[in-house]
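Input chain follows. Return structure tokens only.
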Amino acid sequence: MRHLLTLLIGLSFSGVTWADSTLGLPALVIPADNPQTTEKITLGRLLFNDKRLSADGSISCASCHQAGKAFTDGLTVAKGVAGQTGTRNTPSVINAAFYQTQFLDGREQGLEAQALGPMVNPVEHGLKDHQAILEIVRQDPHYLSLMTRVFNIQPQELTTDHIAKAIASFERTLIAGDSPFDRYYFGMDQSAISESTARGSRVFRRKGNCAVCHELSINNALFTDNRFYNIGVGYKQLEPVIDEWLAATARGEQPDYSAWSDVQRSELGRYAVTKMPTNIGQFKTPTLRNVALTAPYMHDGSIKTLEDVIEHYDKGGENSRFVDAKVFPLHLTPQEKADLLAFLQSLTSVQYTQPITARQLMNKAIFFIVTFFVTSAFADEVDNRKVLTLTAPQRHHVLTEMRDLLAGTQNILAALAKDDMAAVAEYSRALGFDMKHKAENPLHDVLPKEFMQLGMSMHKDFDLIAADAESLKDPKHTLLQMSATMGKCTACHASYQINTGNVEQATEARLDEVAQRGSHVMPFALEQTTHIFSKTDTGGVQQVIVKDKANSGQIKLIREHLSKISHEFMQGDFSNPAKIHGDTMPGLAELKKAKQGDIKIDYKELADGGQITYSTSQPTLIAAIHQWFDAQLSDHARHAMPGHAGHSQHKH
């Protein structure tokens, strides 16, 4: 059972939907020396999304291969470090696992060989060599722990081959079939496509001559023959230099490219790999799956729309001495062009026509956090994960951290569902701040280093989400960031189980309820109150409100509690949270050393609860204050509060 849950979680964050997405695709061949495992896929996904693997920390694989754009970037040519632009359009990674060669010129044979190439390209990731990649990974304790466990090696045995294998494993999950045309052609569902699309499929296979290169068989279709052709694109770039170059080659002289531009050298295409003149200007046949989502088109991104692509082929390509014989004028009618366009649009996989919503992502986040606490209570299967047995204070800290992560995530996604990007930024920044201070808590010391590293890494993620929400204001981009961030937790889940002692264990029924309904169900009880907070580097606001506004008794109790703890704080009485955390309560020593006027605190009643506002002029105290109030208020469901409007009356 647990391994099934782990697999579902791993797939849910890898970009693969739980439904079958392979209709119309051939069988996927996995290399014998790089078998797929959930942990390896998770590791590869982390590396794929890590901007640290670039010279200036600005570029990851996902920068150009964006899930929301069918793993392309929508640009004419790729953009790399320091804003540099390349010479070629970004190809989609979807279904690259099936290709015989990688890159547009086919210079690498497999995903493992391809994975690290862009990282040492001076324009793309800009790292000086493979050793630089290795050093970045070795300096991250979380990566190092995962690498040694996934590949069963010692830290000193780690090589770039292991990094490449992990990335390749993740990329092998990026497969997509199950388009309307697949359901029509392979699933025999005549209602799956329109009459125009059906006519377009016949144009594609007959008069349009498309299937000669974009192959379609009886059992499956990759819509590529994995071969290379010159289709009459980009020749104008070579015209000024090609005659002199050909003459020099004919004389047996070494070609001189010193006066050539980067674009001109790029236009040689497959020739740069084979050195065969017949390969000049040839590029690999791209897949047509999801082609409606991957504009602009051609190896140089020079054709902006599918309508223009059809016009290009209808004319027989550009006037070029190297154009392939398979490209010739088609003389299509306007109706045939419209039908062919409809066919191409029918090749979009269902997982991209029905993108993930904020609600679905929230369900997955809840599903993960609940299953994180599943132990070997499932007797039908041996659980080989390491067991972390926690003391009561440690357990309290971990459960609070996980609950706060869920509550903060709920707030971000709720704001996202309303397209309120300002609130998304505020909630993300508040959650990042909270995650940072929790990761620095001494109670974290009982956890493996990768847990602490995870907390610090996620706080940076939420800071980035906040910054991008403010600058880009793109809900789809934020959804992808959130999916990647929540996915970071799966590796820890796959390796460790939390022994939560007397805390109620999750059951199959509870998991099913969470997975199916997305309810706020956790493996521990929630109070009937909501804790809303805002935290900054100088202060904060903490509110506790009663969910049932008619429950005047509960409101009274909350007001009394908040008034009491604010009074205790002003009097320097820290005994109550110390009962929970012991004398080593985080920040207790710092608070006891505080001087008169160092901290300002104010309590006021709200209509349905109460609010405490605090601030300090001492940067060394702020973390301790946050932790003190967390200890006092963490028995409540928590939500981040956008904005911070505090004032002060009382002084400690």
